[in-house]
Amino acid sequence: MRIDLHPTDTYGNFKIRPGLLLANGAHMVPGGINFTIYSSGAKSCELVFFKPHAKEPFATIPFPENYRIGNVYSMIVFDLDYENLEYGFKIDGEYNFQRGNVFNKNKILLDPYAKLISGRDVWGEEPDWDNEFQYRARVALEDYDWEGDTPLKTPHNEIIIYETHVRGFTKDESSGVKFKGTFAGLVEKIPYLKELGINAVELLPIFEFDEFEGARKDADGNYLMNYWGYSTVGFFAPKAGYAASGKYSMQNDELKNLVKELHKNGIRIILDVVFNHTAEGNEHGPYISFKGIDNKTYYILTPDGYYYNFSGCGNTLNCNNPIVRNLILTCLRYWVSTYHVDGFRFDLAAILGRDASGAPMANPPLLESLAYDPVLSDSILIAEAWDAGGLYQVGSFPNYGRWAEWNGKYRDDVRKFLKGESGKAECLAYRICGSEDIYNRYWRGDCASVNFITCHDGFTLYDLFAYNDKHNEANGWGGSDGGNDNHSWNCGWEGDINLPDEVKNLRHKMIKNAAAILFTSLGIPMILAGDEFGNTQFGNNNPYCQDNKISWLDWNNLAENQDLYQFFKKMIAFRKAHPVLMRMSQGIPYGYPMASVHGTNAWQFDYSPENRVIGVMFAGKNSEGADDFIYLGINAHWESHGVWLPALPQNMTWQVEINTDLGDSAVYDKPVAINPANQFIIGARSVIICTSTFQK
After folding, report:
1. Using alpha carbons only, what angle is made at residue 512 by residues 506 and 518, rounded to the nearest 5 degrees?
2. Which of 121, 172, 210, 347 is an active site residue?
């Protein structure tokens, strides 16, 4: 046994010794537990122990002065029963608001590196509001059997992302799973995901958060909660309330089970992470962790001590401070190495490029570190390249050839064109062809653009074609919340009450149009869970607080809207069958460009504002090396139009595989050959997909 792991001192009944300063947080060592915490302004620090769920501590151990080196306190405590131990810290120091110091020795603080957090173990269970120390750190035992699993190395080009909320995905009774609204419940739905064909699941925030943050009751006495979870309490710990076993503090293993089962089925897991702010809010917010440990290190403060609010949530993390940068980098390495996570989507990522004064940086150290980190080298990094402070960096986000972006321009241009707006044809052509007007392939690679039409924030795909206006009255803000720039069209009928069949059919056609465009666009496609079977939020475009049927997926729609589901399934399979759509084609035949745009006449794109007809042809090789051509024809006009398809090499002919104008029969059982001597008529508000593959 190492000599530096023997006790050297005692405090009361506890055997202690100076700890391992380089190991932040709590770690088991032979015979004891090492506790390490950093604070640049602390005068003293105490370690506080609780029995599980006890309101009062059973012990408080001050860190002796010689247990501190620099600004780091570290101590090993021996012979602890780690399975029945909760802990926190008390830190004393100056209180000078203008200088950014708000130390309060009476507050018990959560370890910012806590790997397991208890105290709020069951979702929606109202806490003891008189208990100021609700989130307690526990020591995590890393003994999970991964059975040889590692993060997947699916090429980024092949990824098809399915964004979902852990609770909302299976909480509704219609989900049919045993453990509704949990990691375990999601495991039960893996066969569905595999059958659909997606190969990456992106989960809304799963780091520990407080669903009661900002909670209030609606007119019926039901809680409006922090349902989405974009307000982190602990960055290293999975949310206990998302685990069926959370009340037994087994959430870590339950999440690992989910990851392992996803990987067994060839599905990556991407986490939506929130490093732009925390749950501590502004100067009126609670003490949870960072504020009482080292306020001016962890947050961007004004010269007079107030919080800059580039997040729109009260505070902004000082991400490019070396201490905070190290915490974020360590955190992501931990999720990749310990949970085998395959990638991350960074909420309001533009904040990650701001300096200590809030100004955007040309070469942000954090973003550069993440891009070049060896542990994260296979991880997909996706930026939401804007923030609530007005910094919009779609196409200009500091990327180092590694970062992908949520392409908000793709979303808006597809919506506007399908709606029938004028002057959008050229924009849509760029988006379908990989947005190379935004993303230089030489610098950004093939996967810079994450293409999406809908996400958790905004209308579902069904609601995009069912509502002209948002209907957020249930959120309690008088309809003032949520965006107004939805670019939606209700197909002539607002909502679903007394819905005529012809309007329903048109909506289904519009949904299929959107899916056909999304899955034939160059870039990484992402769909919102439930869009594949017409899920609705009843016109609410900001259900961040709705833990109910507004947000939960209604799986009854899967049976009712089988035509939509089968179409999505077909389009995903179609994309996988044509490497050129993933920019993975080995060669381009006969000198054709990989992607070319066309009008009603081949090779003659119409740049006039009133043009609503686009043709895009892709040329490449299929998986067997044969010549492969794809033609995507889009007519967003309310009248039919004839198009001439581009001429093909000798002995090749076009055949139509998909035509959304045919309703439920949009996908042909057997492709139908097209006579090159005739125009092909694309119906009003319809999309066709034609193919030609050289057969020897």
Report:
1. 140
2. 347
Q: Six-digit token pair at 48? A: 């506080």
For residue 3, the tally of other CB atoms under 10 A from its CB is 6
Q: What is the pLDDT of residues 283-299, one digit of tens each?
A: 999 999 999 999 999 99
Chain-centre distance of CA 592, in angstroms? 37
Contact partners, residue 296, CB within 8 Å, separation at least 6: 40, 41, 99, 100, 101
Residue 596 predicted with pLDDT over 90: yes
Average pLDDT over residues 433-437: 95
Block residue for tokens 């919009």 = 392
Q: Please give the backbone phi and psi of residue 514, each rounded to the nearest 5 degrees, phi first.
A: -60, -45
Lookup: tokens for 235: 């960055």
Cα gap 321→323, rounded to integer Å: 6
pLDDT digits (tens, 9 = 90+) for 375-404: 999 999 999 999 999 999 999 999 999 999
State the maximum Cα–Cα separation within the chain, in Å, rounded to a whole number.
Answer: 95
Catalytic residue among 121, 294, 342, 384: 384
pLDDT digits (tens, 9 = 90+) for 669-684: 899 999 988 999 999 9
**What is the per-residue pLDDT for 448?**
95
Task: Please report, rounded to a whole number, the percentage of residues in the chain having pLDDT higher than 70.
Answer: 99
Going from the C-alpha of 79 to that of each of 6, 57, 59, 291, 634, the distances in angstroms are 11, 18, 14, 31, 70
Backbone angles phi, psi at 419, to 5 degrees: -65, -25
Q: Which helix (H) or strand (E) holds 519?
A: helix 501-519
CA distance 613 to 601: 10
Is the per-residue pLDDT at 695 higher than 70? Answer: no
Is 384 labeled as catalytic in the residue annotation? yes
**Is 347 among the catalytic positions?**
yes
